């Protein structure tokens, strides 16, 4: 039996972007990952209670405003 081995493109583990892709695709992928990370952080911020928000140094209104932003907004 012959086995065919498929090689995967080397992966940059700090950003999970394949290294052999064109520069434009890598830039686009990094932007997608940044949006996903920003949204993850906003969901985590929305789950914090008053006590933890005081520890972070922001008010509940500020946290609600930040958590309510769209994922691609800075």
Question: Descriptors for this entry?
Answer:
about 70 residues; mainly alpha; two-stranded antiparallel ribbon; 3 helices; elongated
Overall pLDDT: 80
Unreliable spans are: 1-11
Helix content: 40-55%
Q: Main β-sheet, in a few words?
A: 2 strands, antiparallel
Record the SSE blueprint.
Elements: E1 11-12, E2 17-18, H1 23-46, H2 50-56, H3 60-67
Antiparallel strand pairs: 1-2
Helix pairs in contact: 1-3
Report on the architecture of this protein.
This protein has 74 residues and is mainly α. It has one domain. 53% of the residues lie in helices and 5% in strands. The protein is built from 3 helices and 2 strands, in the order ββααα. A two-stranded antiparallel sheet has the order 1-2. The chain is elongated and about 45 Å long. The N terminus is likely disordered.
Gist?
With 74 residues, the protein is mainly α. It is 53% helix and 5% strand. It has three helices and two strands.
